[in-house]
Amino acid sequence: MSTLLQPTPDTGVPYRVRWAITDAWTLTTRETSHWLRQPFEMAVGLLFPIMFFLMFGYLIGGDISVPGGGDYREALIPGTLAMTMMFGVETTMTAMAADTQKGVTDRFRSMPMSASAVVMGRATADLFQSALSLVALVLCGLLTGWTWHDGLPSMLLALVLLLWLRFAMLWIGVWLGLVIRSTQATASVQILVYPLAFLSNVFASPESMPAWLGALAEWNPVSATAAASRELFGNPGWGGDSWAAAHPVLLAALWPLVITAVFLPLSVRRYRRLSR
User: Fold this and answer.
1) pLDDT at 276
2) What is the pTM assigned to this prediction?
3) Which end is more exposed in the chain, N or C (fewer Cβ atoms within 10 Å of the end residue's Cβ)?
């Protein structure tokens, strides 16, 4: 008597990785479909960094000088791009907290999907939105006379470093959204984002600040990415004698790596421990 052998389901690492990627992409399309239903919020997100550039570049920039006589608006565009990546923390945090508060995250957890798919889906969708913000601000800069001067490869590397910073910052947003679980409480966290973004070299030279404050500004991850972008774009910057000012590209690569290494596993772990 012969016995029919049932095929053993594939549960190896390649199988799990493939389905984790598939689940994450499904949730990414869910997030991006919301943009079509809420175009006003998307438009505000794209116009926000442009407003900052125009306000500081044309209303205040006339009284700010750049070392070496460079154009302040050329120094401002890379800084505004880096600041925009920092402000993305708020978007990620609010969306993640809203899903958790409404029970959407709990419904996802009850489904047979990868534990990392929800946070990875949110991260990927927010990264796409940040890329659109970069494109919008770059186009605004080109229309107002800004340009890069060191060739296409350097320009692309600058954009990669900017998105690399955003990738790191969104994991802070995911973790905070899972911890706070309330869209009302996110306002208190948002208040802290602005000082961290402005305590940088985005709008002014750290050397013009008190020594202790200037040191904090130079070692700010936003400052590192802004300085690296200026260097790679060939735009004027503030300079400085510190190690951070002399090695901005290296620091812009290291800071997001450290942040991601800390907050990505914290986010996945926090997601797995929800409702415990």
Assistant:
1) 52
2) 0.84
3) N
